[in-house]
Each structure stands twice: as structure tokens, then as C-alpha cells.
Amino acid sequence: MKTDEGCSAFFEIISDWTDGELPAASEKTLLEHLDRCASCRRYAESLRALKKCLASGCGECSEAAALVDECVRKFLSGK
Ligand SMILES: [Zn+2]
Fold it and tell me: What separation in Å is there between the alpha carbon of 57 and the centre of ligand 1?
């Protein structure tokens, strides 16, 4: 897998995206990237799951949090 598809830029905006704060123009670019980048897709999915979990006040978000953590670590280490 190619490591340099601009993932670092996307990693930052994925967080905004899961908060619903991403402008439509950026969202289109992000979605195109997610379409072909499994790492970012996985991160986006786990982050969304975590935020949903936190929003519901379930108090048992450790699994989702661990997944997000794992994605971030992989990303930071250049996978
Ligand atoms: Zn990516």
C-alpha cells in the first residue's frame, strides 16, 4: 500500500468530518480519498463509532476508543 497519498492532511480533517464541521467542498475530496484509502476509512469509521458512543453516554466506549487509538498510532508510525 502506498503510504503517501496525503493521508496526514486527511487524518486532520477526518475529525472535523465526524463532527459534521467539514465544508462540502472538502468533504468531496475526503470521500474520494476514503474510497481508495483503507487506513483512513478505518480511522473515520472508528472515530465516528467512538463519537456516537460518547454522544449516547454509554460509558463503555473503551473498545471504540482503543480502535481509534490503534489507527492513530499506526498513522503516526507511518503504518
Ligand atoms: Zn489515507
Answer: 30
| Tens of pLDDT, residues 4-16 | 568 888 988 999 9
The residue assigned the cell 474520494 is 32
- Could you tell me the distance, in angstroms and rounded to a whole number, from the CA of residue 34 to the centre of ligand 1? 7
pTM of the predicted model as reported, rounded to 2 decimal places = 0.81
CA of 38 to the centre of ligand 1 (A): 7
Q: How far apart are CA 67 and CA 20, in angstroms?
A: 20
**How many CB atoms are located within 10 Å of the residue 18 CB?**
19
Ligand 1 centroid to residue 55 C-alpha, Å: 26
Contact between residue 13 and residue 31 where contact means Cβ atoms under 8 Å apart: no
d(CA 41, CA 7): 11
